[in-house]
Design a protein that fits this description.
12 helices; 511 residues; alpha+beta; three-stranded antiparallel beta sheet; 11 strands; single chain; 15% strand
Length: 511
């Protein structure tokens, strides 16, 4: 007899009928789409749970990081510090102060035990709930597990954030108290070691006797602001006056405290309303990381603003970056004096900029701009290519040795190098780009220089180059030389830190 399997006899159908009462099962998955993969292994399921748990912990860290400081909290903290100062026994011995700090350590351990225990319980509960929901028969799966984890995780975040935030604030307060107490103990020890004649000169004879013989000794009376206030009130002879003063002081302090909390609460409410109004008008605060140059992934710009304000900032930032990209203001300043006096009108010139970093962004790890070195090659050959310039502008060691070359075109070239050999080798490489020849080389080392202007040996790399080309103008509009001739100018800037020529670079031979 063949084996017959009926759907209504399946155990899964019986369980489903009991759980749903025979009604169609409805699951709301509109906001919880889960990607489906084939035959996930046990390790894959563990990985999914770990990823979800990692997102949960990341959210908790972000919430703790964004804990706001309120006016009420600040006023409460100041009030607690004032109360602590009023109750502090300035005549307590070192042993008593150490015992107080030991009690604070116990209190701190209890606070962190409570906070971490609560956090551990919530995390374990969410994890167990995720696993049970995932393995639950019939209705279980990734969607149910995600639903349960999200609902429980929201409550967990609030509880954990409150516990960890309170523990952090308590830790900061106790650490500050310990620091002040240790400073007070050391200050008192220092005064007790000072010779008595010096103390008498500073604090008077009675003050010196108190510091040497009474201050901080065991069994001495309590000296605090509260005790002094109580003694002042008790010293009043008239019962009527004493009752008036006592109640006046108590109620004035309580009234000040209540008024302070009300003012702080109103400030918090006004700030919250203003923040909500700004959020509704401008949107939420967004953090955008821009990569303005797709060929340079290291250069990034970080923008933080409200949603409606950050969009025009993105457009403005990208436009400014494109406008100022590879442009240096004042690049032509600093040429040798002889270039402007005796040399002929310059038709072609190339400026090569080296930096102490291979590629942008040109900032050192501490945020300081890296070293910039500029080399000028006059009378550039008409037939040079990007590869010729790249080869001549190879990295070299820049330093304090100055090599000056006098050229046959009436101009000069100056190169700084870490050594004579490094400077001369780089000068020979760069002169391959020029039609000029060397008439005389002069080298020198710095003998005396301001420490700020020292030139330590630094390896520099080619960053970009600017090629200046002048040709006689056909419309008599342009730059005029001393002979009255008019020239058109064209400036071509291009990167040298890349391995290949930049896209859209014109051929120098056709210019």
């Amino acid at each position: 007899m063949p084996l017959l399997i009926k759907a209504e006899q399946l155990t899964s159908r019986a369980i489903r009928k009991q759980t749903t009462g025979g009604k169609p099962r409805l699951l709301d998955l509109s906001k919880r789409f889960v990607p489906v993969t084939k035959d996930k292994t046990f390790l894959g399921r563990i990985f999914d749970f770990g990823r979800s748990l990692g997102g949960f912990i990341s959210g908790a860290i972000n919430l703790i990081r964004n804990i706001a400081v309120s006016a009420t909290g600040i006023f409460g903290w100041l009030l607690a510090r004032v109360e602590q100062l009023k109750q502090f026994d300035w005549n307590a011995s070192d042993a008593e102060l150490r015992q107080q700090m030991k009690g604070q350590n116990v209190q701190l351990a209890a606070i962190w035990g409570t906070a971490l225990g609560n956090a551990t319980g919530w995390l374990v509960g969410v994890g167990v709930g995720y696993g049970v929901s995932f393995l639950c028969p019939v209705i279980g799966g990734a969607a149910l597990a995600r639903t349960v984890a999200t609902a429980a995780g929201t409550e967990a975040l609030e509880e954990i954030t409150a516990g960890i935030g309170g523990a952090l604030r308590a830790t900061a307060g106790i650490m500050a108290n310990r620091a002040v107490t240790w400073g007070y103990i050391n200050y008192r020890r220092l005064l007790k070691r000072v010779p008595k004649p010096i103390l008498e000169r500073l604090y008077g004879k009675s003050g010196a006797n108190f510091i040497k013989n009474t201050w901080g000794n065991e069994g001495e009376p309590i000296i605090s602001f509260n005790s002094e206030m109580d003694e002042f009130v008790e010293s009043i002879q008239s019962e009527t006056t004493r009752a008036f003063v006592e109640n006046f002081l108590e109620e004035s302090w309580e009234g000040f405290t209540e008024a302070g909390f009300i003012v702080a609460a109103e400030i918090d409410n006004a700030y919250a309303q203003s923040k909500q109004a700004n959020s509704e008008a401008l949107g939420q605060t967004r953090i955008v990381e821009l990569t303005p140059d797709k060929n340079n992934k290291e250069e990034k710009i970080l923008l933080v603003a409200e949603e409606k304000l950050i969009r025009p900032q993105i457009i403005s930032t990208l436009s400014q970056h494109r406008l100022l990209h590879n442009r240096d203001v004042g690049q032509w300043v600093g040429s040798p004096v002889d270039d402007s006096i005796r040399a002929k009108f310059l038709n072609r010139k190339i400026e090569i900029v080296f930096r102490a970093k291979e590629s942008p962004p040109y900032y050192m790890p501490g945020g300081k701009r890296c070293k910039v070195v500029t080399c000028s090659i006059p009378d550039t050959k008409p037939g040079v290519t990007w590869k010729d310039i790249k080869a001549a502008a190879s990295p070299y060691m820049w330093g304090s040795y100055l090599l000056v070359a006098k050229l046959d075109n009436g101009r000069q070239m100056q190169i700084h190098g870490a050594t004579k050999q490094a400077a001369q080798k780089k000068l020979e490489q760069l002169l391959k780009l020029s039609t000029a020849k060397v008439l005389k080389l002069t080298g020198s080392n710095e003998v005396l220089v301001n420490p700020r202007n020292k030139k330590p040996a630094t390896k520099v790399y080619p960053s970009f180059a600017s090629l200046l080309i002048r040709a006689k103008s056909s419309d008599q509009e342009g730059r005029t030389n001393m002979q009255g001739q008019v020239f058109d100018e064209k400036l071509i800037k291009f990167d040298l830190y890349t391995k290949e020529p930049p896209e859209g670079l014109p051929s120098f031979n056709q210019i």
